[in-house]
Design goal:
The complex is a heterodimer of chains A (about 130) and B (about 80). Chain A has no helices and eleven strands. Chain A is mainly beta and about 130 residues long. In chain A, strands 3, 4, 5, 6, 7, 8, 9 and 10 form an eight-stranded antiparallel beta sheet that branches. In chain A, strands 1-2 form a two-stranded antiparallel sheet. Chain B has one helix at about 45-60, and strands at about 10-15, 20-25, 30-35, 75. The longest helix of chain B has 16 residues, at about 45-60. Chain B is elongated. The chains are: A mainly beta (about 130), B alpha+beta (about 80).
């Protein structure tokens, strides 16, 4: 299968690489099939929609910044990142993590209704 | 929209497994209790909207990935 993406140009992949989000993501409930791509030289993963290849979400593994973040069995927690040319303005959404199981190829989004987890968490400092 | 009037401690059922109860009221605040199956997410409306907005923002911020992050540190929670 092939898709033409905004971010990476044309990507060829096999069906076993598809990660399914049964309920989609908040605001993107209609998109349920994704590829999860990590460029070698990048800190970020890209959750790229197969159904709408112009849509891709940069993601960051939350484990790297928080040892005590709420876990889900067999899933790894990722934050959706809002990129910015100024790294000090790059934020990660810790309020609505995306949990992905790369073995079962499934994922879901959860909302953690606790004040300590902001929607816009500044990921970098000088 | 269905509008119902309830007194303190009275309940509303939605289907057979969701119960909403009015706990207390004051001038312009209502405290409400919810009982629902675990897979039903209960959220304040403005949080839902804020998350949706940030996700849309994330999908549009196509900054090239060759950001020079060398002189920055990742901030731990």
């Amino acid at each position: 299968m092939k898709i033409n993406t905004h971010q990476f140009g044309e990507i060829e992949f096999t069906e076993d690489k598809i990660i399914t989000f049964e309920k989609g993501l908040l605001g993107f409930e209609h998109l349920t099939k994704y590829l999860f791509i990590k460029p070698d030289d990048s800190l970020f993963y890209w959750l790229t929609s197969i159904e709408d290849p112009d849509i891709a979400f940069p993601m960051f593994g939350i484990r790297v910044i928080d040892d005590h973040y709420p876990q889900e069995d067999n899933h790894e927690a990722f934050a959706i990142v809002v990129l910015n040319p100024d790294p000090l303005k790059i934020t990660a959404n810790l309020k609505a993590p995306v949990y992905i199981n790369q073995n079962s190829k499934s994922g879901f989004q959860k909302i953690i209704d606790a004040d300590k987890y902001p929607v816009y968490y500044n990921l970098f400092t000088e | 929209m269905l509008v119902l009037t309830r007194k303190i401690n009275e309940e509303i059922k939605i289907g057979s497994d969701i119960t909403i109860k009015i706990i207390t009221t004051s001038d312009n605040q209502v405290k409400i209790g919810f009982e629902a199956p675990k897979n039903i997410q209960i959220l304040r409306g403005e949080i839902y909207e804020k998350i949706k907005e940030s996700t849309i923002e994330a999908s549009k911020a196509f900054v090239q990935t060759n950001l020079d992050l060398q002189k920055y540190k990742i901030k731990k929670v």
